[in-house]
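User: What would this chain look like folded?
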Amino acid sequence: MSQLSDTGTATRRRVLGAGHVARAQAASTPFDGPFQDLITDAAWGHVWSRDTISLRERSMMTIALLAGLGNDGELALHLRAIPNTGASREDVMEALLHVAIYAGVPRANHAIKLAKEIFAEADREDSQ
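Assistant: Here's the prediction, encoded as structure tokens.
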């Protein structure tokens, strides 16, 4: 592994959790291995590991972009990761208000519904 890959893997673990990264790595095959390498190096090593803005800010931008584009699977992943980034539920709502204005009310409405479900799930897990 290269330094970039090591950095990307560490940042990916910090944001998404070691369990998620371990599952993704275990599920990697020769077919999708190059894609896993690409996102580890490019997204996590190059972009998420930069120190120009905080993980909280990156998290909020990512949530807004994913919601605006309707990428629900990735959006759910990043909503679950907010405790690791320093973003709050209030931050998420602020990002989704921007989505409503700049990407459309239906996208924001759907993302808010998804966030409510994920936050309720997290609250149930925390109370156990």
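The helical segments are 3-16, 18-27, 33-47, 55-69, 72-80, 82-85, 89-102, 105-126. If you want, I can go into more detail on any region.
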